[in-house]
């Protein structure tokens, strides 16, 4: 009753920002991501008769705070599905900065879902695994697959039609993403709290919901056609609209730092100089820059020279869940 799984994180090109049902994590809009090979989580789950509670180790340290409670709450769902009441020892190695806008929960819960269901004897197909994973972390349902992935919001209140589907494999298109690391510290407003505050109080949120389906359809066409300029411009505009909703929240907040702005300005300047590059930012200060392989050395060198940038980590399109 032991299994190990590896999952990669993903970057949302069309953002997931807001829930219509928080307990089972149903989004207010369909969204789209690219799975990245540069960031991953490897998780081993071992169900054992002698344990009296779950034990969660993250990067070899025992975790006993709210993060541990989230893991136990998720495993309760797995146990209920399997009809078993055994507790587990979980060892998770996270090769992603935690709670800094690098979607650590996406790879974390995808790996946890895959390892725990396999260890307890459940045989789930990818759709079923995506539905289950979604209930641990929304964005994690997209990390079941590699390449470009759409999370369909669905319409049913039980969440049975809200899951991720692959729209293009990791080998479809060789584009690159540079993750610009500005701060590895935890953000002051979590994604969960930020979403809730925005949905409940931002007057800009309705406009976001109206525009996002249009962005989604257009970017899917652009990805299919391998139109980099169109893909990048849609992703960048969608990102800016998402962050605008946080400025309209009450009280207003932003995930950006001074260096975030400097990176954004440098990316825009690169385009003016003839280097096609576009940025996107999740719920954190760090910036991800999309570019083509031929421009890698120029883009990486430019980003590394920006004051306040700690590191630049290059990714290619990554694969989905794997079992080790």
Automatic annotation (TrEMBL):
One of its GO terms (molecular function) is diphosphomevalonate decarboxylase activity. GO terms for biological process: isopentenyl diphosphate biosynthetic process, mevalonate pathway. Its EC number is 4.1.1.33. One of its GO terms (cellular component) is cytosol. SUPFAM superfamilies: GHMP Kinase, C-terminal domain, Ribosomal protein S5 domain 2-like. This is diphosphomevalonate decarboxylase. Belongs to the diphosphomevalonate decarboxylase family. The lineage of its organism: Bacteria, Bacillati, Bacillota, Bacilli, Bacillales. InterPro entries: GHMP_kinase_C_sf, Mev_decarb, Mev_diP_decarb, MVD-like_N, Mvd1_C, Ribosomal_Su5_D2-typ_SF, Ribsml_uS5_D2-typ_fold_subgr. Pfam families: MDD_C (PF18376), MVD-like_N (PF22700). Residues 7-164 form the Diphosphomevalonate decarboxylase-like N-terminal domain. Gene3D superfamilies: 3.30.230.10, GHMP kinase, C-terminal domain. Signal peptide: none annotated. It comes from the Bacteria. NCBIfam families: mevDPdecarb.
């Amino acid at each position: 009753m032991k299994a190990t799984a590896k999952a990669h994180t993903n970057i949302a090109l069309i953002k997931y920002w807001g829930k219509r049902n928080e307990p089972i994590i149903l989004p207010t809009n369909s969204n789209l991501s690219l799975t990245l090979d540069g960031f991953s989580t490897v998780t081993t789950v071992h169900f054992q008769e002698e344990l009296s509670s779950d034990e969660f180790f993250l990067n070899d340290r025992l975790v006993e705070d709210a993060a541990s409670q989230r893991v136990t709450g998720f495993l309760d769902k797995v146990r209920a599905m399997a009809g078993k009441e055994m507790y587990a020892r979980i060892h998770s190695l996270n090769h992603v900065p935690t709670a800094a806008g690098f979607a650590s929960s996406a790879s974390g819960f995808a790996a946890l879902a895959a390892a725990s269901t396999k260890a307890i004897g459940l045989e789930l197909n990818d759709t079923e695994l995506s539905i289950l994973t979604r209930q641990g972390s929304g964005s994690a349902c997209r990390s079941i697959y590699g390449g470009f992935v759409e999370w369909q919001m669905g319409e049913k209140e039980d969440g049975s039609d809200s899951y991720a589907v692959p729209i293009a494999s990791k080998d479809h298109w060789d584009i690159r993403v540079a993750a610009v690391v500005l701060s590895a510290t935890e953000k002051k407003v979590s994604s969960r709290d930020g979403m809730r505050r925005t949905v409940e109080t931002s007057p800009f949120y309705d406009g976001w919901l109206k525009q996002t389906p249009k962005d989604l359809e257009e970017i899917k066409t652009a990805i299919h056609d391998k139109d980099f300029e169109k893909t990048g411009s849609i992703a960048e505009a969608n990102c800016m609209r998402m962050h605008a909703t946080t400025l309209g929240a009450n009280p207003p907040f932003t995930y950006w730092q001074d260096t975030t702005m400097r990176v954004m300005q440098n990316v825009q300047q690169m385009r003016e100089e003839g280097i096609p590059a576009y940025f996107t930012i999740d719920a954190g200060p760090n910036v991800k820059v999309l570019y083509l392989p031929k421009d890698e050395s120029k883009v990486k060198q430019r980003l590394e020279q920006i004051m306040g940038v700690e590191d630049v980590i290059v990714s290619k399109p990554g694969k989905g869940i794997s079992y080790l």
